[in-house]
Amino acid sequence: MKKKKLLFVASLPSKTLNFDGERNKSKDVLDSIVSKNIYDIKIIDYTKNKYFQTIKLILLLIFNYFDRIFISKCLAGGSLALRIVNIFSRKKTKKYFYIIGNGYRGLEKKKLYFSDCNKCELVIVESSDVVSQMIEKGVKKEILQIFPCVKPNYNIVFKPKKYKKNQPIKCIFFSRITPAKGLYDAVNSIIEVNKILGINRFSLDIAGGSTRTPEEVELENYVLNCEQKYDFIKFFGKDFMIEGIDSYYRLQQYDLHVFPSRFVFECAPGSIMDMFIAGVPSLSSTFKSAESLLSNSNSYLFEQGNYDDLVKKLLHIGSDLDELSLKRENTFKEQFKYNRDAFLEFLEKYSFF
User: Fold this and answer.
1) What is the value of pTM for the model shown?
2) Mean pLDDT in each 10-residue stretch from start to end of the chain (353 residues)?
3) Under DSSP, is residue 212 helix (H, G, I), strand (E, B) or coil?
4) Is the torsion defined by CA of 198, 200, 202, 205 positive or negative?
5) Same domain for 145 and 8?
6) 174 and 143, same structural domain?
7) How far apart are CA 309 and CA 76, in angstroms?
């Protein structure tokens, strides 16, 4: 049977840009679609030269017919790609747009093509807040659906933990090495809590990559200096990344994921989804859509940007280890809402296959 034709438009991970949320999310979306083995897929990858990719996109649209076009990008780059698709694609082609990130929040000064979204069969967003944003800009409510993040299916064996009184708590920061993700808060709060308690009750391992901007280099140097001063701070950088099922078993050794993000674009962090798979509870800031992903039954929440509240929550966690053990079990159950099977079933409902 002849395969249908799909054009997939995204920014995908490269050797140097491999710790970016949008790129990794788009790769997981693409891998999910590929797994069905239904489509002959052409790819436009905007991580490569964007001007060449735009020319390639236009030529593919002019000289080829595609049954489906799927765009997986943030609203700024994605809506521009959608505008091009709407100009050059054939009338019978069905279009799908997965908006990665927190809608147009922080992108107000950019040219955004909201009206083009109404020519899509489906516009997928990461949270109800983004749904509201899009409706305010005239996008039809009936084409907007929420699917926060897609992760591969993993047959992980859950590893429960029953903690003893005053047992050390092993924490991990697992995100981009940038001030916006709250790494200064993560490091400083662990140091402060240990000083308050008079013992090194908490340890913090730090994993993640950066684009090496001056502020990111300064942050990394700060972390490395803390690593020299405190034996409970360790920096792994890109030496610890998600590279298959073994990475999740490595994550399972941790007791707590510290995620004090101050990032204005935060919406459905991939690292929190990774913790669902591993069964590691998150201590997260209340970014805009946090409570649509996390609850008091599976996570700990503190007020975004409130360092004192972060310290307070760490002290609480150290005093109630039975609660930590229970949240570990509840966190693990969350992964099944966002795995590949759930996503493909979701797409089936909207005539994608």
Assistant:
1) 0.88
2) 94 85 93 97 97 98 98 96 97 96 88 97 96 97 96 92 94 96 98 98 96 95 98 95 93 98 89 96 95 94 98 97 97 95 96 95
3) coil
4) positive
5) yes
6) no
7) 34
